[in-house]
């Protein structure tokens, strides 16, 4: 890095990925200006799952201890057939899993993982963040990059990272590729412990696979709450959106499932309804002094529970690439893309296929139900080796 003047990077977006990127950059002694369009830096949603790769990334960013303190570490990941209530497969994520992958499998409220990184960001002298700042355009100049917001304010830096989510303004400028609306609708809610049936208070994610949809539930905040996620193939022509949902709509898609999982659908007092989208993988995320990170780079469906995990990995790799390239932002960004694009594309495409498995019907459902029959835990671990064995020591592998 330049010994006389600190390099400065603008990060657009104050979500999990943007905050993680800020922590990765200051480890390389780079000043960060974080621009967030919301009035306050916060995180909406409910629970998310964190694989061992996510905890490895959080540790590398210096926030692993804070995130662990707010996590619930689970015992197993279970898939059940919602029609006949039998177990399709179950992967234990206890001691043997931790020994294999070096870290646990956990679940956490989205606001809690966000807060765990935000606390570190707020305490760091090299990071400045501004809220209520909506970006309109990004322009590269001879002296770096200029970012202009909707109020006409200009911000200058040596480079820009677009971590501004699935509807990224930065991506639109450089790629202008359309989102792929899936037609799948996701309902999310949080259920208090006392409202959750006792036999459903299981310490781990349980996925109930149904024709055209599925349900997932798992504990949050020490088991005081439960995250409930319901997904289905919509009958409507969907647009990428978030709005309030209705219990009646949810129930109408799961009339044929077993009474045991179906009773969960009446528990939430309110639902948020997401019509989902992802994007097809692309060969580059930016040019020159600009790149993308997290959902701006690789928005994905939720079927592998890896959206936040991939954003955390991105941040670590970006920091390592900047270290290797010693302040040459363009070279570091291209190396980062070379490493991250194939891995994140594999997750995007694998998530799509996993969604198909979850929602199988007819003969496909029968085939799905036999896929993991008799499988040993070691074989389950072998199947997820490519995903969960990621850590800072191998993160630059291609």
TrEMBL record:
Belongs to the 3-hydroxybenzoate 6-hydroxylase family. It comes from Vibrio cincinnatiensis DSM 19608. GO terms for molecular function: 3-hydroxybenzoate 6-monooxygenase activity; FAD binding. This is 3-hydroxybenzoate 6-hydroxylase. Its cofactor is FAD. It catalyses: 3-hydroxybenzoate + NADH + O2 + H(+) = 2,5-dihydroxybenzoate + NAD(+) + H2O. Residues 8-323 form the FAD-binding domain. The keyword Signal does not apply.
């Amino acid at each position: 890095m330049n010994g006389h003047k600190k390099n400065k990077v603008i990060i657009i977006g104050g979500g999990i990925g943007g905050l993680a990127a800020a922590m990765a950059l200051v480890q390389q002694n780079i000043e960060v200006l974080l621009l967030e369009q919301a009035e306050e830096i916060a995180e909406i949603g409910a629970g998310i799952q964190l694989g061992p790769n996510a905890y490895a990334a959080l540790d590398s960013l210096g926030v692993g201890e804070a995130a662990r303190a707010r996590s619930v570490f689970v015992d197993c990941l279970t898939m059940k057939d919602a029609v006949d209530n039998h177990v399709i497969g179950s992967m234990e994520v206890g001691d043997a899993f931790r020994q294999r992958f070096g870290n646990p499998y956990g679940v956490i409220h989205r606001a809690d993982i966000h807060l765990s990184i935000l606390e570190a960001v707020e305490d760091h002298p090299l990071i400045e963040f501004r809220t209520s700042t909506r970006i309109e355009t990004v322009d590269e100049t001879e002296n770096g990059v200029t970012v202009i917001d909707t109020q006409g304010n200009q911000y200058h830096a040596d480079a820009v990272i677009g971590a501004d989510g699935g509807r990224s303004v930065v991506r639109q400028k450089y790629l202008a590729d359309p989102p792929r609306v899936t037609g799948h609708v996701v309902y999310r809610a949080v259920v208090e412990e006392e409202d959750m049936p006792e036999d459903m208070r299981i310490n781990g994610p349980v996925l109930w696979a149904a024709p055209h949809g599925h349900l997932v539930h798992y504990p949050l905040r020490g088991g005081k709450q439960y995250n409930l996620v319901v997904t289905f193939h919509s009958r409507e022509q969907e647009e990428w959106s978030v709005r309030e949902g209705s219990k009646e709509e949810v129930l109408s898609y799961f009339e044929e499932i077993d009474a045991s999982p179906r009773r969960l659908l009446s528990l939430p007092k309110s639902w948020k309804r997401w019509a989902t989208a992802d994007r097809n993988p692309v060969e580059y995320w930016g040019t020159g002094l600009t790149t993308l990170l997290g959902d701006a780079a690789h928005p994905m469906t939720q079927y592998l529970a890896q959206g936040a995990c991939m954003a955390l990995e991105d941040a670590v790799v970006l920091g390592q690439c900047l270290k290797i390239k010693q302040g040459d932002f363009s070279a570091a960004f291209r190396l980062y893309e070379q490493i991250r694009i194939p891995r994140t594309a594999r997750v995007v495409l694998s998530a799509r296929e996993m969604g198909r498995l979850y929602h199988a019907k007819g003969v496909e459902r029968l085939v799905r139900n036999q896929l993991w029959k008799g499988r040993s835990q070691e074989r389950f671990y072998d199947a997820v080796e490519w995903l969960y064995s990621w850590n800072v020591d191998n993160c630059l592998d291609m």
